[in-house]
Structure formats: C-alpha cells, structure tokens
Write a structure and sequence with these properties.
Blueprint (H helix, E strand, L loop, with lengths): L2 H17 L1 H38 L1 E6 L5 H12 L4 E7 L1 H12 L16 E6 L5 H9 L4 E6 L1 H42 L2 H9 L4 H19 L1 H22 L9 H28 L6
Antiparallel strand pairs: 1-3, 1-4, 2-3
Helix pairs in contact: 1-8, 2-6, 2-8, 2-9, 2-10, 6-10, 8-10, 9-10
C-alpha cells in the first residue's frame, strides 16, 4: 500500500469516528469494559503464577532427628543427606527453635513445654534442586539411621497447585470469552455505522474501488476504537494495582512470597491491553465488512 493511500485511509477513519459520534462512544464503552475485566484477570492470573512459583520453590523436606542423637551422629546424618544428588541445601533447626516457631504460630501457652519438657525434635530442613524431587528425598531420608521421620509439604502443595491450576484455567477461559464478546459487540456496533453508509460503499464499488480500498478505513476505525477504549482500563488497572501491591506487600513481608513489582509488570499489562484492543477492534471491523463486500 502506498504511503499516500494509507494516509488517506487513516484520515478517513478518524473522520468516521467523529462523524458517528454516539456509535463510536458505544464501541469505546464495549472495549473499555472488556479490557478492564481482562486487565484485572490477567493481573490476578500472573500474580497467582508468581506466588505458585515461590511456593513451589519453597517446598522442602523436614528431617526429624531421633531424640538423644549425639552431635557426632547428627554430623554424620547431615553428611549423608548432603551426599544425595537432589539436595541443594541443608539447614539445622534445634528443638528450641522449633518450639519458638510453634509459640509464634499458636500462642504463649506452648511455652510450658520449654526445657526438658520440650517434646519436639531437632530438624534438618532440606531443600531440593527441583521441587519434584522432594518425595524421593523424603523417602530416602526416612531409611537413614537416626531419623525419626521425614515430612514434606507435598500434600498441601499438590492441593494448592490444583487450586492454582483451576484459577489459571477459569481465568484464561473467561478472558477468551470476554474477548469474543468484545469482538461481537464491536462488530455489531460498527455494522450499524456501515449500514448508514451503505450507499457510500455502493458508489465506491460502482466507480471501481477495490474491496481493500473500501475495507481499510473501517479496519483502521476499529483499531482506533480499540486503542481509545484501552485508555481508561490502563489508568484504572495501574492505579488499582499499585494500591493493592502496597497493601499486600506489607502483609507478605514476613514470608518468602511477593507480588510482581509494578514497574515492568504494569508496562507489560498496559502494552498487552493496547495490543488486544487494537486487534479486537480491527477484527470486529473486518468481520462486519464481509457482508457488504460480497459480489
């Protein structure tokens, strides 16, 4: 396409948006509502993926050491555990430290079990190179000397990942449905504007204008609709995400989990919403033109 022709199509599409006033506003509204919901869903899904990844990387094996095991025996056990190919790191947690964790989680009444009355075990906290290796490491640890038991968050993690998978699946499905609805609404809104201009299209065809020459202004009009319709969702999602990030980051500060940082993440979401808006606007316009360009 020549530059002068493209410029003509661009100018014509802008004039058409202005000329069709309320119809253009209706199309903008359809895109705005859809992209707002899509932006919120994408923010939730991407942060769920981030936290799921953090949790997956935090899955560990807790090797409970037999009570009465000497320091020499503990050192030998640690060496055996470190010798496993799947083990990335080992951290020792004394029974006193374990009791402090219990008191911090469940209340001061558990302080009664301090000193010689402490029923807990010393623990080796083992992290694997890959979360999928935790089950195998736990089984091997249980068979070692001076090990009372070996536990891992496998059951809880599997349940969590199942929930995360459900959120991802439903979120993706709803997003696709919303995009389909947006294409349908834009297509029908622009179709109404085309109906009011069918005489203009007929005249253009009579004078020999090609389908491409007729179609391009409408496709660009749909793209403008998607672009302008993305502005409000971008503003709302950006402000809302920064606010939510500030609140939840404070709550997650004491854990190893975190939300995606607003900077790069919001830039990606904004660019994606603009791209989606332009694409669904152009597709909606293209679909609405097919009937009028049939010979």
């Amino acid at each position: 396409m020549k530059a002068i022709t493209f410029k003509r199509h661009l100018v014509e599409s802008c004039k058409s948006l202005k000329r069709n006033g309320w119809m253009s506003v209706a199309a903008f509204s359809a895109v705005t509502v859809t992209l707002l919901l899509v932006g919120v869903l994408l923010s939730i899904i991407m942060n769920v993926n981030k936290i799921a990844s953090d949790i997956e990387n935090d899955v560990q094996v807790r090797v409970l050491i037999d009570r009465g095991t000497s320091q020499t025996q503990q050192a030998a056990l640690r060496k055996k555990l470190a010798g496993l190919d799947s083990v990335r790191s080992i951290k020792f947690s004394s029974k006193e430290r374990e009791l402090k964790n219990v008191v911090g989680s469940y209340g001061d009444e558990f302080k009664l079990f301090g000193g010689d009355d402490n029923p807990l075990n010393d623990v080796f906290v083992v992290k694997t190179k890959n979360p999928s290796q935790t089950v195998a490491v736990a089984k091997k640890a249980r068979g070692m000397k001076d090990v009372y038991d070996a536990k891992y968050g496998g059951a809880s993690a599997k349940k969590l990942f199942k929930v995360v998978g459900g959120i991802q699946k439903w979120g993706t499905g709803i997003s696709l449905l919303l995009l389909f609805v947006a294409v349908f609404l834009i297509s029908n809104t622009i179709k109404i504007t085309i109906l009011s201009r069918r005489n203009e299209i007929s005249i253009m065809r009579l004078v020999g204008a090609t389908n491409g020459f007729i179609r391009w202004p409408f496709i660009l009009e749909g793209a403008w609709t998607g672009l302008f319709g993305a502005i409000l969702p971008i503003i709302v999602v950006d402000i809302g995400y920064v606010w939510v990030h500030g609140i939840l980051s404070a709550s997650l500060a004491s854990t190893d989990y975190s939300l995606l940082s607003p900077g790069v993440f919001l830039f990606q979401i904004d660019a994606l919403m603009i791209l989606i808006g332009i694409i669904i606007g152009a597709i909606g316009s293209g679909l609405s033109m097919r009937k009028f360009l049939k010979i």
